[in-house]
Amino acid sequence: MLESLALGGGFAFAAVVQPGPLQAYLLSQVAARGWRRTLPAALAPLFSDIPIALLVLLVLGQLSVGAQQILRAAGGVLLLYLAWSAYRQWRRPGPAAADGSGRPRTVAQAVLVNLLNPNPYLGWALVLGPNAVAAWHRSPADAVALIVAFYTVLVVGLAVFIVAAGSARFLGPAGQRLLLILSAAALAALGVYQLIVSVWLASGE
After folding, report:
1. Are 79 and 188 in contact (CB under 8 A)?
2. CA distances (Å), 165 to each of 39, 94, 107, 170, in order?
3. What's the CA gap between 19 and 187, in Å, rounded?
4. 16-27 pLDDT, tens per residue?
């Protein structure tokens, strides 16, 4: 179970600190309405990911074990690519994610932003889905632990991001670079782990 908790929590941490559409949306909300009114939007992934997760798990359940391991290996490659991208951004820091021109006003609109974001689809199809299925075969509790760890860290992390964005000093360049390199390290470790596990399980068939 510790393995599932580490995988879910680590992937969620990396998802929070990487700039993306949802983070840009949250920044626009904070700018328009303040962090207190924006805080409920941290729950958006809980709602937007339900149809994504159901679809991915339904499809994965029809795949052979070998195909699932191929998807898991592809997820490892994706994580390594994201780690490399974060490392490059750390080496050559650029401007922060744009805060967006639109000003959506409800959690429902935050859900829509995330539904149109490709990251949850890639995350579930290549990382969370295959690992959740594998964990379920070991023990249903492990699969539950993986998903609960991911969404707990994700929601709490987004809430911290919202509060920090509304403070007088949002991290600063040094803090942002520290989060980037930590994110790169977490993604690289998860990617290597996922590749090793996929190769090991495939060789054991």
Report:
1. yes
2. 11, 18, 18, 5
3. 14
4. 887 677 877 777
